[in-house]
Amino acid sequence: MDNINNIMLQAAEAFKQYRKVSGKQKAVFLRAIAEEIEALGMELIHTTMEETNLPEARLLGERGRTIFQLKMFADLLEEGSWVEARIDTAQPDRKPLPKVDIRKMSVPLGVVVVFGASNFPYAYSTAGGDTASALAAGCPVVLKGHPAHARTSAMVADAILRAVERTGMPEGTFSHVDGGNGFEIGKALVMHPVTKAVGFTGSFAGGKALFDMANQRPEPIPVFSEMGSINPVVLMPEKLSTSSESIAKDYAGSITLGVGQFCTNPGLILGVDNADLQSFIKVLAAEIEKVSPSKMLNAGIYQNYEGKKTVALAQENVTTEAESLVEKTDSIQGLATVASVDADVFLANPTLHQEVFGPYSLVVKCKDLAQLATVIQHLEGQLTATFMATETELQANDDIVEALRNISGRLIFNGVPTGVEVCYAMHHGGPFPSCTDARFTSVGPDAIKRFVRPASYQSFPDSLLPAELQDTNPLNIWRMVDNEWKK
Amino acid sequence: MDNINNIMLQAAEAFKQYRKVSGKQKAVFLRAIAEEIEALGMELIHTTMEETNLPEARLLGERGRTIFQLKMFADLLEEGSWVEARIDTAQPDRKPLPKVDIRKMSVPLGVVVVFGASNFPYAYSTAGGDTASALAAGCPVVLKGHPAHARTSAMVADAILRAVERTGMPEGTFSHVDGGNGFEIGKALVMHPVTKAVGFTGSFAGGKALFDMANQRPEPIPVFSEMGSINPVVLMPEKLSTSSESIAKDYAGSITLGVGQFCTNPGLILGVDNADLQSFIKVLAAEIEKVSPSKMLNAGIYQNYEGKKTVALAQENVTTEAESLVEKTDSIQGLATVASVDADVFLANPTLHQEVFGPYSLVVKCKDLAQLATVIQHLEGQLTATFMATETELQANDDIVEALRNISGRLIFNGVPTGVEVCYAMHHGGPFPSCTDARFTSVGPDAIKRFVRPASYQSFPDSLLPAELQDTNPLNIWRMVDNEWKK
C-alpha cells in the first residue's frame, strides 16, 4: 500500500501542472497515445486474443474504436467549446446595485481512478473511454488494470507512458496499478484522499461497492459505475403480426453477438401472448439452436453465466425454449439460451429481473398491453429500452413509450440495443441500478463532463483569465455572452 | 406518514402528465407563480418580518429576486436551448457499419423534494431557486417548509397552488408539507421511492444527513445540499500596503451584512503578518465595534452563533480583536466579532476551520506567503475564495490563485464574497463540505441541470420525436447537429 500512496501523491503533484496544460497540448498528448497504441501492432492483438478469447476481427474493431475515441477527445479539445464558457459582463451603472463581471467555465476535478472492464479490453479499459475523457478533462488517471487481461493492460499502459514522456506531460499524469484481483487495492485507490472521482465498468456488486465506499469517505466523491442492464424490448402486436420472423432473426443475432457479453445485450423481451408471439418464439428458438458456441472471456465469466442461467431456468414456471444444439468444443464456451415465462410469474419473482450476463434472453408473455405496461412499471433502471412497433402503435402508445424512456438512458425504435455508436447524441448511462449516475454518459464526447465542475471568476483582469474566458475569445469557441450564444 | 405517502403518490401521478407539458406552458406556470406571490403584497412581507426578524427593505429585495428567478426560468424555457439537444443523423452507407440516427436531450428526473432554507425565506425557500428550477425542469416538487417561517411558507405555497390551478397544471405538481422540525418527516420524504432528487440549503449536519440517507436507499438519488463555507479571503501584501483601510471597511460591511447570515460570509481572512496587516486589523476592529447589533433569524440561529463563537474564541492562542460595543436591545441580537490567530495555531486546530454562522470572522496571521499557501492547502471545499491583490501580485502568484480555485466554486478578485449575482456565469456550489455536489450550481439558469438527465432516442420517426429533436427545429433552439452548433 506504500506503493499506492506514492502513486497517488505523484498524481496529485502532476495535477498541479496538468490542469494548466492547454487543450491543444492535451490533444497532442491524446493523439500520441493513439499512435503509440497503433505502434503496438499485432503483438497487442495477439496478446489480447490469448487473454480474452475474443476473436481477431472484434479486437481489431475495438482497437479502432479506442483510437477513434482518443482522437475524438483530441478534436473536442482543439475545438474547445466543451468547457461551456459563460460570460456576464459588468454593468457598473445598474440600479439598485452595480453588476460585477462574472465568467464561468469547466475545470478538472483532480485525480481520477479508473477500473478497466473485462468485456472491452481496449475501449473500456486502460486507454478506453474513461481514461481518455478524464485525461481530456485535465485529470491525471490512476488505472487499475483488469486482472483478466493483465498483459494487455500493461502493454497499453506502457504506450500511454511513452506518450506522456514524448509530449512532455508531467510525470504522474498516468499511472498503472497492476493489483490483480485484490479488493484491498481497489479500496485503497478509492479511499485515498487524493482521488476526486472514479470510473468503473463491470458488475453491479463491484460498482455498487465502490459507490458505497466513495460515499463513506470523509470527502465523498462521484463514482461513475456502469453496471448491469437487461435492456427490455417491447414487441407490439401489429408490428409482430407483420414481421415476427425477421425480428426473431435479428434478435437471435443481437442476443448472441460477442457471446452476449455486452452491457446492452437484450435480456428481456416483452410481448402480448398470441399466435404471433408464439411464432416469434418458435423462430427465435430455432435460430438459437443453430448458434455455434464460442468461448467466453474467461472461466469466471463463464461460471457466472452458467450459475445465473441455471438459477433463472430453475425458477418455477419458467420454460426453456431453446439452447444451442451445436456441440461445445471447449469447456468455457457459453451456450446460447432463450426461455419464456408468463407475466404474472415474472412480476412476482424478482430473481427473473436480474441480468444473466451472456447469450441469454427471457421472453415475458403478457395477457394484454395493460399487463405489459404493468411489467414496465416494475422494471429497474436500464441502459436501453427498445420499442418494436409500427408508427401507428408508437403514436397510440405514448404512455408505454414514456414509461420506457423514464427507466432507460436510450430508447430505440425498431432496432437492436447492441451497438453503441460513439457520438454526441449517444447517452450511455441509465437510471440506477444500470449506473450509479444516470446524469452522465460514458460514451461520446459528453463523457468528459463526468470529470469536470464549473468554476466562476469574478472581476478578474482580462489578461489573467483563462484564454477560454478572455474578452477577445482567442480560442474562437462558442460561449454564452450576456445571455447570447456567440463565437 | 400516511399523509406523506399520499402526497408522494400524487406527485408521481402528476409527473406522468407534467413531464409532457411544453416549455412554453411551464413558462406560463412560472410567471403565474410570480404574479401570485406579488399579489400577496405587503401582508407576506409583514408576516415574514415577524417570523424572521429580517428588515422590510431586505425582504422586498429578496422577494424581487425570487420573482426575478421565476421569470428567469420562464425565459429559459421559452428560449428552449437549455435541453442541450444533440442530433447525429443517420449515415446508412457508412462502412463498415451503417450509422443509425441518434438524438439526445435533457429529460426531468421525477419528483423532487425541496427543503426550505431559514436564511432566505423567499429566494431559497418555498418558491425559491430549488423549486423554480425543478419545476422548470419538468419535475413535480414536494416542499418541506422551514419551521422558522411556517406562515410565510404556507402563504407562498398557497400562491403556487393557485398558479397550478390557474394554468391547468396537474394536481400534485406542487405540494407543501408543513412538518415542523420533525426529522422523521424529512427522512420519510427523502426515503420515499417516488423521490428522485433532493434540494437543501442549510447546516452541514442537516445536509450531510440527507445525503447519507439518500445514498443508503435501495435506489440512491442525488442530493444537492448547500451547506457551510468560511469563504477564505487572501490579503496580498502589496495590495494591503496601499489600501488596508478601505479593505478593512469593505470587509466590516461584508462580515456584518444581514447579521452575517449568508453562506458567502467571509469567515476567514488570511494575510502575511506585518505592519499593514496590523493596521488592517485595527481598522477592521474599530469598524466592528461600531456596528449596531441586529436580531438574528431566530433564537436557534442566535444560540448556535453564540455557542460556536464562544468555542472558537476559547481556543488556545486565539485573540478577540473586537466585539461590537453598541448595546444590545434584544436578547437575540448577534454581536459582530472579529478574532485573530497565528497560522501555526490555525493549522494545528481543526475547530478553527469550522463555520461560525453569523457576523464573525477570523484573521489568520501567516509568517510569509509560503505559510499562507500551506494554510490554503489545508482548507476544505468552499463556496467562494477571494484574492485581494494588485494585478502584479495576481500574475506572480499563480500557484496561490490555482490552489484557491481548486478548493472553491467562485474565485473573486478584489471584491467581497457576499452578493451572489443571479446570472448564467454564476457558479454557486463548491467542493465538499460546502456542498454535496460541486458539479452543480444552485443559483442562475444552470441550476436547472440538477434536476434533469440526458435521454437518447434512436431511429425515431421525426413526427414522434419531442419537438426539441425534430428535423425542422420547430422551437428554433440551439442544437448540436452532426457536430456543429446550429439554430
TrEMBL record, chains A, B:
<protein>
    <submittedName>
        <fullName>NADP-dependent aldehyde dehydrogenase</fullName>
        <ecNumber>1.2.1.4</ecNumber>
    </submittedName>
</protein>
<dbReference type="Pfam" id="PF00171">
    <property type="entry name" value="Aldedh"/>
</dbReference>
<dbReference type="InterPro" id="IPR016162">
    <property type="entry name" value="Ald_DH_N"/>
</dbReference>
<dbReference type="InterPro" id="IPR015590">
    <property type="entry name" value="Aldehyde_DH_dom"/>
</dbReference>
<dbReference type="InterPro" id="IPR016161">
    <property type="entry name" value="Ald_DH/histidinol_DH"/>
</dbReference>
<keyword id="KW-0560">Oxidoreductase</keyword>
<dbReference type="GO" id="GO:0033721">
    <property type="term" value="F:aldehyde dehydrogenase (NADP+) activity"/>
</dbReference>
<dbReference type="InterPro" id="IPR044151">
    <property type="entry name" value="ALDH_KGSADH"/>
</dbReference>
<feature type="domain" description="Aldehyde dehydrogenase">
    <location>
        <begin position="3"/>
        <end position="391"/>
    </location>
</feature>
<dbReference type="InterPro" id="IPR050740">
    <property type="entry name" value="Aldehyde_DH_Superfamily"/>
</dbReference>
